[in-house]
TrEMBL record:
GO terms for molecular function: DNA binding; DNA-binding transcription factor activity. InterPro entries: ArsR-like_HTH, ArsR_HTH, HTH_ArsR_DNA-bd_dom, HTH_MetalResp_TranReg, WH-like_DNA-bd_sf, WH_DNA-bd_sf. SMART domains: HTH_ARSR. It comes from Salinimonas iocasae. It holds the Pfam family HTH_5. This is Metalloregulator ArsR/SmtB family transcription factor. The lineage of its organism: Bacteria, Pseudomonadati, Pseudomonadota, Gammaproteobacteria, Alteromonadales.
Amino acid sequence: MSPLSFYKCLADDTRLKILLLLVTHKSLCVCDLIDALSLSQPKISRHLADLRKCNVVEAQRQGKWMYYQLHTGLPEWAQRVLKTTEQANQDYMQEAYNRLEHAMSNNCQETSS
């Protein structure tokens, strides 16, 4: 992966936030990303498709859901860029983290009922 293609993939607010969420949560389904980013399913899916084309994320089916994670072949330098960006920009991501945490806690409560 060239640095140019990697940074082009990051050059969108939604794609960058998806990647930073995956840095901290390792694996998320589309529904988690919809909740975290307050965007529609088609918009999230389109950005995930772009990230898959860039070989930055990969998907794994678990039952009826697709779960996304950082691509296992992502170069170490690219992983470090994402981790450093996530750690240094908590304020940029805070709203998405809060919405995701809220959605996940509600899903757990619904599941345990």
